[in-house]
Design brief:
Elements (H helix, E strand, L loop, with lengths): L14 H19 L4 E2 H14 L3 H15 L3 H10 L4 E2 L5
Antiparallel strand pairs: 1-2
Helix pairs in contact: 1-2
Length: 95
């Protein structure tokens, strides 16, 4: 992870939208950084709210690309891992 970066957010989003998207970004970071990963239920819940803010695949891909460029972490790969997870936690490995 890079030491300091800004989350990609849209200026026309409401505060609630920004919170929902930021919470997903935080969960993805936790999946990579935490020794225990992140709760699958929490990750899936924030992704659902993220999709309410970002309903199109094109915008989702754009935000994922921007987030990955800034942080080194992939929303797409994390959500793939969540779908395949057989436990209640999702843990990503860097690299």
């Amino acid at each position: 992870m890079k030491d300091s970066y800004q989350y990609p957010l849209e200026t026309d989003w409401s505060t609630e939208d920004m919170i929902a998207v930021t919470n997903l970004y935080h969960c993805v970071e936790e999946a990579y950084e935490s020794a225990n990963g992140v709760s699958k239920n929490e990750l899936d819940g924030w992704y659902k709210q993220f999709k309410e803010v970002v309903p199109t695949k094109a915008q989702e891909k754009q935000l994922d690309k921007s987030f990955q460029k800034a942080s080194g972490y992939s929303i797409y790969r994390t959500m793939q891992a969540s779908q395949k997870a057989t436990s209640k936690r999702v843990k990503m490995s860097e690299g």
